[in-house]
Amino acid sequence: MGANSTDLPVNESYSFSVYKSITNVRNFFRNSRETFKRRSKTTEGKTILTLLGMNSCIFLAWRISKKRPNASIFMVQHFTCSRDSMQIGRLHTLFTSNLSHYDPLHFTINMVVLYNVGNELIQIINPTRFTQLYVFGGISSSVTSVMLKRVRRSPRVSLGASGSVMAMLFMFAQLFPERKATIVGKPISVQDMCLASVVVDIMGIIMGFSGIDFAAHLGGAAFGYSYFRLISSSLAHERREKREQSRSDGKDNGSEGSLLRLLKRT
């Protein structure tokens, strides 16, 4: 019944695997620290880190306010968006709610997408446009959410960067339609993932599911799609100039040509 000695890992092998794991973890944090320092010196990196910092500060404020009734009331009044907040003139919540997360999982998912997708996207559309995408994508999501709440006379409040994140994803999907993402262990193109999310959000609205603001997702997605259409000509012109400059410097990049062809078709 017991295993013989040949069934068990020898000490040297076991020690090596532990050492390797520790080394990998240490290298990960070291590389992350170096990447963080490098990116924090660029305008693009500072923009992403500023948004991450703002979201993080407000998330911490929610954590701190849990045991402070007055603070909780303040957070609800100024960092959530609802039909009632519009009626009493708190228009700033159309944006501030998009920096606000109460649930740790919700916060983590949105920040991971913001960091990973945002760092690539901002290199292409520039920091100014990226900030506009985040801000107005979020406002568009809040407006769409409030409109549906008015129709349904719902008193529910909304918060979270999901609208801004959806705007980023839909912009990204149009720039890189064949880029793959892994969902439940299976690869799927970002474009197909975005289309599937639209179907899910529409079904969520029709079925009246609660807990997720499906209308906000659609509002952010609509802005991301529309904003890409608005700036695609300017992007194509800028990428063309950049590619010509790279050619003159002897540093032509094939990916620039692929992206330029995509922008020309839009």
UniProtKB/TrEMBL annotation:
The chain crosses the membrane at residues 47-65, 157-176, 196-225. Residues 239-254 have a biased composition (Basic and acidic residues). One of its GO terms (molecular function) is serine-type endopeptidase activity. It holds the Pfam family Rhomboid. Its main location: membrane. Residues 90-232 form the Peptidase S54 rhomboid domain. One of its GO terms (cellular component) is membrane. It is a multi-pass membrane protein. The keyword Hydrolase applies. Keywords: Hydrolase, Membrane, Transmembrane, Transmembrane helix. PANTHER family: PRESENILIN-ASSOCIATED RHOMBOID-LIKE PROTEIN, MITOCHONDRIAL, RHOMBOID PROTEASE. This is Peptidase S54 rhomboid domain-containing protein. It comes from Rhodosorus marinus. The lineage of its organism: Eukaryota, Rhodophyta, Stylonematophyceae, Stylonematales, Stylonemataceae.
